[in-house]
Write a structure and sequence with these properties.
- The strands form three sheets. Strands 10-9-8-7-11-14-16-17 form an eight-stranded mixed sheet, with helices on both faces.
- Strand 7, helix 9 and strand 8 form a beta-alpha-beta unit.
- The chain contains twelve helices and 17 strands.
- With 351 residues, it is an alpha/beta fold.
- It folds into two domains: 139 residues, 3-Layer(aba) Sandwich (Cobalt-precorrin-4 Transmethylase, domain 1), CATH 3.40.1010; 175 residues, Rossmann fold (3-Layer(aba) Sandwich).
Length: 351
């Protein structure tokens, strides 16, 4: 008996035309989107509504299975044990039996994407899984070159996160919100680190500052507004893109505006990116070569790369506790580095 076949594909940076040509080449009749948040600031044609519309115009059905989406607390493999995942997988299998189906996510390389875990599960259930790379090109079985390496590094990253979260709480360095697990940890001395950051020439010269929305960088955002710098803030998980705050319109309310709630209250949505003079990002851990470790969602890297992609290299700084500075952070291609590490006690410039 012939195995049921299912395809996987990443949106990557493809044009709409390239994407449709790939689907037509492989005679795909339905797309199952497993991005947890089907948005794309850089490639708006891959926003859910736009994608659904142009697929319909090409007689291809579209489904969004949020319960198969990635970025799960505790890691995707643990999430796969839950009822929500099993329900989504069952539905995927049902609709894939009668039509040529592709599982869609963002990463071009399946080994850097949670869809690889879905495909492994499907293979165990008797499916033949074909990973599409380009029009007419698929990943051959013998090409599984990155999988062991990537999976090992993913596990090392999570192990290091867990270690840092545990140390910060054990040493009573972590502060609200607690527990810090699953978050960019707030820490005692975050305000002092922010003040040290303002001593940098890069900070003093900056007229526009981008800052991540994490708790330990609240003082950084407040200082930017107090010093009359235009502030760009990413919304949590980039669900609503970026916000821009004008210090001239927030006089006397800088502290409130530095919170996430306040940022939404006093800001305007940034319709088109503008170039910041300095990027300030949160980390779980960072090493002395500048490699940073986020909380696992990939949003910090996405924010940095989005600005780099449009404007070229911009100085990147992070404010962390001294205990978050480690000897080595495991990293992969596509991960980002910082140029300056600022703690409550010191400033480290990456050579």
């Amino acid at each position: 008996m012939e195995k049921l076949k299912i395809y996987t594909l990443g949106t990557s940076n493809r044009t709409q035309q390239q994407f449709v040509e790939i689907l037509k080449f492989f005679e795909i009749s339905q797309v199952v989107d497993v991005r947890r948040w089907p948005t794309s600031k850089l490639f708006p044609h891959f926003e859910k509504q736009n994608l659904q519309k142009f697929l319909k115009e090409n007689s291809i059905e579209y489904f969004h299975f949020e319960n198969l989406g990635g970025f799960r607390e505790g890691g995707y493999k643990n999430y796969m044990k839950k009822k929500e995942f099993k329900k989504g997988l069952k539905k995927l299998i049902e609709i894939s039996k009668s039509k040529n189906t592709v599982i869609l996510c963002a990463e071009k390389n399946p080994f850097k994407c949670h869809r690889y875990f879905i495909s492994e599960k499907l293979e165990k259930l008797g499916f033949e899984v074909v990973h599409i790379l380009e029009k007419g090109k698929v990943l051959e079985k013998k090409q599984k070159i990155l999988k062991p390496c990537c999976e090992k590094i993913f596990l090392k990253k999570q192990k290091q996160r867990e270690k840092i979260w545990e140390i910060l709480e054990k040493e009573k360095v972590a502060v609200f919100p607690i527990p810090c697990r699953g978050k960019i940890p707030n820490f005692k001395g975050a305000d002092r680190a922010a003040i040290n950051l303002t001593k940098l020439p890069e900070w003093k010269k900056a007229k526009i500052v981008f800052c991540s929305p994490d708790s330990p960088q609240a003082k950084v955002r407040e200082m930017a507004l107090l010093e009359k710098k235009i502030l760009i803030v990413a919304t949590p998980r980039l669900k609503k893109g970026y916000l821009i705050l004008d210090p001239e319109k927030i006089r006397g309310k800088e502290k409130e505006a530095s919170t996430i709630k306040g940022a939404f209250k006093f800001s305007k949505k940034l319709k088109e990116l503008i170039k910041p003079d300095l990027i300030v990002i949160g980390c779980v851990a960072v090493d002395k070569n500048g490699w940073r470790l986020g909380k696992g969602g990939g949003y910090g890297d996405a924010e940095i790369l989005e600005f780099f992609g449009k404007f070229g290299k911009i100085p990147v700084a992070t404010t962390v506790h001294d205990l978050q500075v480690v000897e080595k952070v495991p990293h992969l291609k596509g991960d980002t580095r910082v140029d300056i590490i600022v703690t409550p006690t010191k400033i480290i410039r990456i050579k």
